[in-house]
Amino acid sequence: MKTFILLLSVIVYTAAQVVQPCNSPPQWEGRVAAGDRQLKFSEYARISYDETDQRVRVIEERDEGSEKDFYDTLYLHNVGLKYQLNLVTKKCNITTLNEPFRTRGVPPFARFLFTGTIGAAGIPNEHFVIQAYEGQFQDGTRFGVTVTYPDCVPVEGTFFTNSSGILHFQ
């Protein structure tokens, strides 16, 4: 009987554990690659992300069909402005930001989906563990994000909005 109660206690304790969202680094830099062969579109960019001051800088190279463009874009969500400099023509456009700042890490209200491994799991230092989360912001925008574990560094993410469609970062 004692064994049964002990076993039941262990099962209840294990089942009661809920994975809590991790805290992603508030500032980081990375590279982004996106493309669509059917639309003959490709984009390569360097991104500097600052969650603390709600700003993002993207230096990108875009190929659309036979046109190639180079941009340096600064999103200043804390003041609601976007500065986009065409690096070829040196023309700078300043526009108002209509979309709110979105964390590219794991929001505290995110729901844990699963843990996985990227790379050769059986070989030391040739893989890393990831965790996937999903959720919805108050304005209805849905998101999914994958981060490394235990460091919580963003690997990829997707936002689904009614106004601007799908935004994917990797």
Keywords, separated by commas or semicolons:
170 residues; mainly beta; six-stranded antiparallel beta sheet; five-stranded antiparallel beta sheet; 11 strands; 9% helix; Ependymin; Mammalian ependymin-related protein 1; signal; calcium ion binding
Please describe what this structure looks like:
GO terms for molecular function: calcium ion binding. Keywords: Signal. It comes from Potamilus streckersoni. By secondary structure, the protein is mainly beta. It has 2 domains: 23-101; 102-170, no CATH class. It is 9% helix and 54% strand. The chain has 1 helix and 11 strands, in the order H-E-E-E-E-E-E-E-E-E-E-E. The protein has one helix at residues 2-16; strands at 27-36, 41-50, 55-64, 67-76, 81-86, 92-96, 111-119, 127-136, 142-149, 154-161, 165-169. The strands form 2 sheets. It has a 6-stranded antiparallel β-sheet with strand order 1-2-3-4-5-6, with no helix packed on it. A 5-stranded antiparallel β-sheet has the order 7-8-9-10-11, with no helix packed on it. The longest helix has 15 residues, at 2-16.
Structure classification: mainly beta
Overall morphology: globular
Number of strands: 11
Distance between the termini: 53 Å
Which ranges are low-confidence, i.e. pLDDT below 50, for 5 or more consecutive residues? none
Tally of separate domains: 2
Average predicted local confidence, pLDDT? 86
Question: Biggest sheet, open or closed, and with what strands and sense?
Answer: 6 strands, antiparallel
C-alpha-based Rg, rounded: 21 Å
Supply the number of helical segments. Answer: 1
Strand order across the largest sheet: 1-2-3-4-5-6
Beta percentage is over 45%
Helicity, as a percent range = under 10%
Helix and strand pattern? HEEEEEEEEEEE
Organism: Potamilus streckersoni
Protein name: Mammalian ependymin-related protein 1
Keywords: Signal
GO cellular component, one term: extracellular region
